[in-house]
DNA sequence: TAGCGCTCGGACAACGTTGTCACAATAGCG
DNA sequence: CGCTATTGTGACAACGTTGTCCGAGCGCTA
């Protein structure tokens, strides 16, 4: 900046004023300064600038489980767009469902003085963020609630959606429904399982633990479990898959066998209309989830200090897949 | 930091030493300082730190077209992981194929003094980055080459892959092959179309422009084009779709009609093994693409000043989809 | 023409940290 | 016991920028 000032024949402060579009500078000087800036390729250092002026960093952080997963990729896309609209840069990191890693990454983001955080929590204790919140960093949790912390949260109606879906299966006369899920350690899985149970009691169907299988990590594991269940004498007449990766495996196995079991899956997915098996999915608006969370965050950043709120977004039952030809 | 020093009864500099794990500090003092740090909730300001010490920002930027797109999401995931392994934060932004927006976002990243940039170019002139490169910011372009700039680049063998795929169709006896593509403004589309043409001449099949349709933006547009082509008297016996969104639409229409046209698609996709139509895809390793680019970038950041290199990754023909039941 | 207010430019300090250097205290040596 | 090394500590300036404040120069009025 001093070089620019020398070149333009003005004081350092005048250059600062020009660079910051401050008033009270002669048009002629402005021009000279801008010329010098262009010639010397000067660009102001935002670190020094915000150090002195105490301005925010115009950066937010987004912590998700896994970027490559379409659910999180969709969220990241929406957040990136809203961040751009707010002239804010976006730092993204993946916790890979590891609480230690989550904590480390969130700390790092806070250290970098992000203006706000959007977090899909991995661990179940986020007390370490309390100091940061009190220090004034806004934070919005999405898809799952934070542990041990009262904070803004945007969730899906996992429980209600699962209950509605199960009710549909029960109304169709199914009494033996296989329920397949990933880890019970994940909040959404617990909620969805609870929702399924909610529907059983009013229908007079007992909760049979032999029909519930957890720890299913991917499509092929799901296919194996389905195969095994169908081979039992009291095979299920319907399946409820609690996430879309499991749904894929179930479809694969049911299609392979030419089975006519009903299939209900939580999570919609791309190409769900093209899969070779009729299924009903519990769908929701992922983009709306991200939008609500990001908008809330920016309202907080702009100074909204009202009491933390929790938003729950609805789910919807949708018929998908192709009938067998 | 001054408060911490006062509380621990040491000088400010000693606190700095402790915070930076510098040697030559008495263990007892270290302890007192750390206690004061904990009590006051002190965290050093990396902006001021790097302002003074001139250290790099430990941040890289990734510019892609659209985060929600699985191709870019996969890239982002790999880059995020490699960044983490290098203790580096990752800023992600989407250009949405808009050259102006690309330029604006890249400038902003450079202003923030990122240590390096990974760019999927949207525009075709990146001369504005030359000053930045000469200033010492490493940059690696991926999936598409930069315009008007000699720089590190990691590409896929679009042309070779398309040629091999077409050759396969020609060997199977197809002579009328419908070619469907998105905009010719996109580098990869041009390369793939060139590759298709490369295969036609040696097989003695003329290039018939009536069989080539560009400007196809999504699955439903693709389905319409297929429908129209199949209704013509000299309907194609095979289709070559130049990206996976188009492939989806083609499948939909071919399946709907119960057609037996052969289908070749560029880009593999999730669930490609579950779609209700037999198809061959030109697949490649997206993760490897991202890995190669990110590794190269970090080698540059670590000081590798060798001549810019261009890496071209191979493609592979893979049979996918389910035969009709 | 003196006095007044208004505009604009520049000197200076400060943001929070660390590199440099100097000095004090201790240990090691002849 | 005095000398030099070595280690531990602190004063100071500097990184690049901007907020504060003062005063120079200007035009206007009485």
From TrEMBL, chains A, B:
It holds the Pfam family LacI. Residues 1-53 form the HTH lacI-type domain. This is LacI family transcriptional regulator. One of its GO terms (molecular function) is DNA-binding transcription factor activity. InterPro entries: HTH_LacI, LacI/GalR-like_sensor, Lambda_DNA-bd_dom_sf, Peripla_BP_I. It comes from Planotetraspora thailandica. PANTHER family: HTH-TYPE TRANSCRIPTIONAL REGULATOR GALS, LACI-RELATED TRANSCRIPTIONAL REPRESSOR. The keyword Thylakoid does not apply. The lineage of its organism: Bacteria, Bacillati, Actinomycetota, Actinomycetes, Streptosporangiales. Keywords: DNA-binding, Transcription, Transcription regulation. It comes from the Bacteria.
